Amino acid sequence: MATTMEKDDTGMVEGILQTIADLAGAKEPIIRLLLSMLFSYVLAAILRSVLHGFPATLKHIYFIVTGLALAYFNYGYGTIHSLGAILVNYVMLLVIGGTPISVLLSLVGNLGYLVGAYYYMSTDDYDVNWTTPHCVLTLRLIGLAWDLYDGNKPESRQSKEQKSICIRTPPSPLEILGYCYYFGGFFVGPQFPIRRYYDFVNDRLLDNSEGKPSDSVRPALIRLGHASLYISLSVFIAPYYTNEYLLSDEFLNETSFWYKLFVVAIWGEFKLWQYCSAWLISEGVCILSGITYEGRDATGTPNWKGCNNVRISQLESAVTLRQVIAAFNINTNVWVARYVYKRLKFLGNKVISQAVTLLFLAVWHGYYIGYYICFFFELIIVQFELQWESVMAKTGLSKYYHHPVLAVPLWIFKRFYTMLFMGYPLVSFVFLQWYRIVQIYSSVYFCGHVLFLLIWPLLYHFVLRPSLRKSSKTTDPANSTKDGNAPVEEKKKEL
């Protein structure tokens, strides 16, 4: 009897969620995820109003219980994967933590398990299942192994950053479980080191000296408001620029080349809004909890950017892909810079280090070819921008960027360029499989491939760079003449 009632209740909940999903035009797992993240605001309010000032142990338990409950609500028995991964990593840190082999095992084991999960769980589309928070957990556990390793190195070998976030002893079972299941960062991030978590649960991240809960309600609601704006814009734009539309005969065969480029640019912007809305909701939860406190700025205003994942004004005004990258998914970028890119310093080549870092990100996302194409294009476009800016600076043309007459038209052009060539790689990231990707790229004549892989490399390496070198040699003071007849060095020899 009880079992039948439980099944009826479960079916009713699933029916309600499916109805909401149908009305919103979204998948049911996404609705579960969104509701869980919004409910986390209630959990954060309970934390600050009821549990503030209580021992850290009670907070660990609170995060474990609530985190597991939300995970089970979303993924059912799939929750066992995160729990198992945390416990296995805890044992490893306890036994061999702080050694190079522990870092290697953490990297290979956690990343390998994640990629294997992608293989068994993935469908022909972008999936939202237990692997979604597990990719966040994977970085968290790898970073934890690195922090313990850094903490066991001699201080003379620690960088300033490593000294500020490393730990010397493995976390306890409650600490690592609370750290991983904290509802503000479990589902979509943000990433933060366990040292910040320790300060958080021990009430060391407060904006006052009286020990009262931080005044973080308003900044948290502002971030939630930003997320709501992105969601609202997405709702209005989504029906016109959907994934299905980009694969439709109307888009592929019945529209002009320039209109297709416009659609790719707008569609890419819309996709960024989707990601940003999720990160902003999560960031608001973290602010309300108090974990993001960074002290006060020069004016005495509390700084809540400790887990900042999106710089909205910079993102929406970016005129280069590099500016987009710097304003988007910030904490993941910080993580890969800290634990991957900077660890590759021994290679002695920044471009190679960037390539390996982007390859790591592609593997972390999955095994579909679309991820690798996307991050490859990110590397190529960033190199193009650096080379272009170098040419503009050496030729003196960069001064026209700020010319009163040209400034606005140039900004509009650069803004469209940024939207287009953010959307162009995103085609691969979203559509994942080559048979879909190639339809869209071929409809725009592979213009991004032609520009960045053919035209620009030929122009830069065989025309622009040799010309600039020749020009610099001609104007080099060492080659100038005193009287217009003989070089300086020849005059010295005559003397």
Describe this protein's structure.
By secondary structure, the chain is an all-alpha fold. Helices cover 71% and strands 0% of the residues. It has 22 helices and no strands. The protein has helices at 2-24, 28-49, 56-75, 79-96, 100-121, 131-151, 160-165, 173-181, 194-201, 217-237, 243-246, 249-254, 257-289, 312-317, 321-327, 330-341, 350-365, 369-395, 407-431, 434-443, 447-474, 488-494. The longest helix has 33 residues, at 257-289. The radius of gyration is 26 Å and the shape is globular. Residues 480-495 have low confidence and may be disordered.
Quick recap:
With 495 residues, the protein is mainly α.
For the structure shown, list the relevant keywords.
single chain, 495 residues, mainly alpha, 22 helices, globular, disordered C terminus
Per-chain topology:
Blueprint: H1 2-24, H2 28-49, H3 56-75, H4 79-96, H5 100-121, H6 131-151, H7 160-165, H8 173-181, H9 194-201, H10 217-237, H11 243-246, H12 249-254, H13 257-289, H14 312-317, H15 321-327, H16 330-341, H17 350-365, H18 369-395, H19 407-431, H20 434-443, H21 447-474, H22 488-494
Quick one: how many beta strands? 0
- The chain-level mean pLDDT equals 91
The separation of the N and C termini measures 112 Å
Query: Percent of residues in helical segments?
Result: over 70%
What sort of overall outline do the alpha carbons produce when their principal axes are compared?
Answer: globular
SSE series: HHHHHHHHHHHHHHHHHHHHHH
H/I helix tally: 22
Q: What amount of the residues lies in strands?
A: under 5%
- Radius of gyration computed on alpha carbons: 26 Å
